[in-house]
UniProtKB/TrEMBL annotation:
Residues 1-27 form the signal peptide. It comes from the Bacteria. NCBIfam families: Xrt_dep_XDD3. Keywords: Signal. This is PEP-CTERM protein-sorting domain-containing protein.
Length: 478
């Protein structure tokens, strides 16, 4: 092995002193009782003044969050989007140049949210097995009962789904959407996303692998409840009510014109790991959230979910692979923030941002570890401490006065260990948050050990030899 010198960025006196007292915080996408999913700001599709616009349309979804309250036994869903609760009032049709498409009910509204609690890892199979809990919260969407009347808002089990995109100038499925988003949008090599899941993830089956046709029912992705047994009512929640419960709109990269939400009483079927999928009636955008709901509890505070216990978060299909590989260097170009990235286990790695990309937080570490497995995170020669799964490293908290770091190192990895619950697919995946929603960065195998955390004081005494840390400073607002 060729030894590599570590770039020094010491001289961070205040930040180094703070290291001794800062405790790691719970990681994943779990914050203050809420489980978050982030969606890009560039992948919605809409008609604007007779022309097509991709990104930033009225249908754009920026994120979703879900919280359960053990005292009230209620689940609350918060949405950050540009689409109002009652949808986009379009009139009877939407036109694109010389082509017009009919719109039922004179509006394109939200679809219904589907909670998959099956554990099958397959959206279609969960529907077939009746293991989807559906919630209709938009009062004027096109959900209908078998006799044709509109479905009441509420929580439903034993549901069947239907696709109403054809009546809403929309898309058959995720693949069909991606075709036109990529064809008509200025995305370059960026891809649309579905929150926690890629549009073409195997979880969505043929809905992400074939456009199909309107005449082929198996290619029409369900986006509303067709029928089912109503089990409870839905209460609409205002932005103020959501924020009062701890929802943080600033967690997302952008804040839409609409912060809205709804809540409902938790039913027995909603326990354990789940995947929530929400599409609009037109499937012009959509989002998914992988999370976990607790067993019934009499305690006022729920235990924070161990996101490492959710297989859907750790399977190889849900971890981002490099765009390309050059020797020991794994290159990720225009990916998406908040996701899991996969280098194979080695003794250590250096993560480097490209262009304007900064690392703002390590949200979580790889799963499947022994209790005594810990990893050292360092910025240059400055160790920030030892961390485990379920903990995070927030660089701006540990080193005050910065937005993020352009590079960091993880060491202390045993390449003989299996770092996921799937030994045949061993990997050392880390969940990363960036200052930009489409980061570019590299991961390089690291062969030189860094000082142990107890040597931080000696680094302070050395004084950093006048090394500049300007690259860590917050950018001034223009």
């Amino acid at each position: 092995m060729n030894n590599r010198m570590v770039r020094v960025c010491t001289g961070i006196f205040v930040g180094a002193i703070a290291l001794a007292t800062v405790e790691p915080v719970v990681a994943g996408t779990f914050r203050n009782g809420w489980q978050y999913a982030v969606d890009p700001s560039y992948d919605s599709y809409g008609s604007v003044n007779g022309g097509i616009q991709v990104g930033g349309t009225i249908y754009e979804i920026y994120g979703m969050a879900i919280k359960e309250d053990p005292i009230t036994n209620r689940i609350t869903v918060a949405l950050n989007s540009n689409l109002p609760l009652t949808g986009n009032p379009t009139g009877s049709e939407v036109c694109n140049g010389t082509t017009c498409f009919p719109v039922e009910n004179n509006s394109v509204a939200w679809g219904d949210i589907f909670f998959d609690v099956s554990g099958t890892g397959n959206f279609q199979e969960a529907f077939d097995n009746g293991q989807i809990v559906g919630v209709r919260f938009s009062p004027n969407n096109d959900s209908r009962t078998p006799d044709g009347s509109r479905l009441e808002t509420g929580v439903y089990t034993g549901i069947t789904g239907a696709n109403v995109a054809g009546q809403n100038a929309g898309f058959r499925n995720l693949y069909h959407n991606r075709q036109l988003v990529k064809d008509r949008g200025d995305l370059g090599n960026r891809e649309p996303w579905m929150g926690d899941i890629a549009w073409n993830n195997p979880y969505y089956g043929s809905y992400g692998s074939s456009s199909g046709s309107w005449a082929t029912s198996e290619n029409l992705m369900p986006n509303i409840i067709a029928n089912g047994e109503k089990r409870g009512d839905v209460t609409i929640e205002s932005e103020a009510a959501l924020v009062a419960q701890g929802f943080d709109p600033s967690w997302f990269f952008q804040t839409g014109s609409q912060i809205l939400g709804f809540s409902f009483e938790k039913i027995p079927e909603l326990v354990g790991d789940f995947i929530a999928t929400l599409l609009q009636e037109c499937i012009n955008d959509g989002i998914s959230l992988i999370g976990s709901l607790s067993e019934p509890s009499s305690t006022p505070v729920l235990p924070e979910p161990d996101l490492c216990d959710i297989p859907m978060r750790n399977e190889q299909a849900y971890i981002i692979q490099p765009t390309r590989i050059q020797g020991d260097l794994k290159i990720f170009e225009n990916t998406f923030s908040h996701l899991w990235y996969d280098p194979d286990p080695e003794m250590g790695y250096t993560f480097r941002g490209q262009q304007d990309t900064l690392f703002t937080e390590i949200l979580n570490f790889p799963c499947g570890l022994d209790a005594d497995d810990k990893f050292t995170v360092s910025v240059g020669n400055l160790p920030l401490g030892e961390f485990q799964p379920g903990q995070s490293v927030n660089f701006s908290q540990l080193i005050p006065g910065i937005t993020g770091v352009p590079e960091f190192t993880i060491t202390g990895i045993n390449p003989e260990n299996d770092y996921t619950p799937f030994p045949s697919e061993s990997q050392f995946a880390s969940q990363l948050k960036f200052n930009v929603e489409t980061p570019s960065f590299t991961i390089e195998t690291f062969y030189v050990s860094v000082p142990e955390p107890n040597s931080v004081l000696s680094l302070i005494l050395l004084g950093g030899a006048g090394v500049s840390v300007r690259f860590l400073r917050k950018k001034s607002k223009r």
